[in-house]
Sequence to fold (350 residues):
Amino acid sequence: MTGASKQSPLRWLALPWWTAQLLTGAKSFGDNPLIGSKWLNRKGLHKMRVRMVHRLADWRRGRLAKGLSAQDIAQFTDKGYVSIADFLPADQFAALREAVLNRTSPAREMVQGDTITRRIAIDAAMLRDIPALRGLLRQTRWRRLMHYVASFRVEPLYYIQTILTHKHAAPADPQTHLHADTFHPTMKAWFFLSDVAIEDGPLTYVPGSHRLTPQRLQWEHEKALIAPEGVDRLSARGSMRITAEELPRLGLPEPIAFAVPANTLVVVDTCGFHARGRALRPSMRIEIWAYSRRNPFLPWLGGDILSLPGLAERRIPWLWATRDRLRKWVGQPWKNVGQLRPDSNGAEEN
Fold:
């Protein structure tokens, strides 16, 4: 909204919409004046929403734990992530990696600071062409981990993701600042198709930061009281940034870096504090990347029609096409760069 429209009495026609958003994953302190209301947050609105969604996620995860190993559950409960080396037998992984890297597909790229993030949709055509990939995503342990960490029995969005660093003379990538994606438990996963060295800027995560401790809840409350004006732009939009100096106050350790070999799966709750590490050299990281976020106030586990086979693998092309058509109103940060392989260094294959 512009400054003038914020003062217009007509804006209050949106009050029912703003109110309904309180029982969704809406998180922006700037876009919704109820979420960003200092008066309501002094009365405990943000704290109430945070408590409710964490309790619901704990309840859903309790129902989704069946079939997971005690080791996987214990690691997640303690750390906020599950990290599994050598997830596939070596020969299966080598065949999968070769098939994925040799395939040319429609690609999108986003530039953030000096870093390019490239995503290629794992769509119906790719799953048809690469049976090993289809088998991986249907593997029982894989699926159960995705559902458990997400706290929903829904199909994640899947991409082949490539991170290329030091590609521009520009400020640092904003994703290198420790942050929580949102106020409620969510899931992201990385299955690394290439080795990741510490110099390459690996994923970092603060162990245990997914837990809603009294210290974390108080920190959330204090941030809500000064948002949106008293925090940075991304925090005002609901993805709260935190400094390393603040972690001890919350009883949290320093972040760890997932400098891991290829064939490692890492599944994390991105309500915990995480960041992309700062790359010390030009690098390329390639991974199968999964993302799952649903309305956190829903008390049931499934019921998502878009998770059905035949629909799930078509969601990403639909999302891209819809945003392309609406770019004038909603923006489109993902540029169509044509047909590329995941390991391409640029758009020379366009």
